[in-house]
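Record 1 of the preview.
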Amino acid sequence: MEFNENRAGKPFQQSPFRLMFILPYRLWKAWLLRKQTRKILSALSEAQLRDIGLSCEDVQRYK
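->
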Protein backbone atom coordinates (compact mmCIF):
# COMPACT_ATOMS: atom_id res chain seq x y z
CA MET A 1 0.00 0.00 0.00
CA GLU A 2 1.35 3.40 -0.97
CA PHE A 3 1.73 6.30 1.44
CA ASN A 4 -1.02 8.32 -0.23
CA GLU A 5 -3.48 5.45 0.00
CA ASN A 6 -2.84 4.95 3.70
CA ARG A 7 -3.29 8.59 4.73
CA ALA A 8 -6.31 9.73 6.65
CA GLY A 9 -8.75 11.81 4.64
CA LYS A 10 -9.38 15.47 5.26
CA PRO A 11 -13.14 15.58 5.80
CA PHE A 12 -13.47 19.38 5.77
CA GLN A 13 -11.17 20.07 2.82
CA GLN A 14 -14.01 20.67 0.33
CA SER A 15 -16.79 21.26 2.81
CA PRO A 16 -19.29 24.05 2.01
CA PHE A 17 -19.02 25.13 5.65
CA ARG A 18 -15.30 25.69 5.20
CA LEU A 19 -15.98 27.75 2.08
CA MET A 20 -18.43 29.91 4.04
CA PHE A 21 -15.47 31.12 6.11
CA ILE A 22 -12.59 30.97 3.63
CA LEU A 23 -14.13 32.85 0.71
CA PRO A 24 -15.24 35.94 2.67
CA TYR A 25 -11.82 36.03 4.33
CA ARG A 26 -10.08 35.94 0.95
CA LEU A 27 -12.34 38.70 -0.40
CA TRP A 28 -11.66 40.83 2.67
CA LYS A 29 -7.91 40.23 2.38
CA ALA A 30 -7.90 41.22 -1.32
CA TRP A 31 -9.89 44.38 -0.52
CA LEU A 32 -7.43 45.24 2.26
CA LEU A 33 -4.43 44.84 -0.05
CA ARG A 34 -6.06 47.05 -2.71
CA LYS A 35 -6.78 49.68 -0.04
CA GLN A 36 -3.17 49.64 1.15
CA THR A 37 -1.86 49.84 -2.42
CA ARG A 38 -4.17 52.76 -3.20
CA LYS A 39 -2.96 54.58 -0.06
CA ILE A 40 0.72 54.08 -0.92
CA LEU A 41 0.28 55.10 -4.56
CA SER A 42 -1.67 58.22 -3.63
CA ALA A 43 1.22 59.34 -1.42
CA LEU A 44 3.70 59.26 -4.32
CA SER A 45 4.54 62.36 -6.31
CA GLU A 46 3.80 62.73 -10.00
CA ALA A 47 7.45 62.16 -10.89
CA GLN A 48 7.61 58.97 -8.83
CA LEU A 49 4.42 57.68 -10.46
CA ARG A 50 5.85 58.45 -13.89
CA ASP A 51 8.96 56.40 -12.99
CA ILE A 52 6.82 53.30 -12.43
CA GLY A 53 4.68 53.95 -15.50
CA LEU A 54 1.54 55.35 -13.87
CA SER A 55 -0.23 58.67 -13.89
CA CYS A 56 -2.33 60.43 -11.27
CA GLU A 57 -5.48 59.43 -13.15
CA ASP A 58 -4.45 55.76 -13.01
CA VAL A 59 -4.19 55.95 -9.22
CA GLN A 60 -7.60 57.61 -8.92
CA ARG A 61 -9.21 54.94 -11.14
CA TYR A 62 -7.59 52.04 -9.24
CA LYS A 63 -10.28 50.21 -7.30
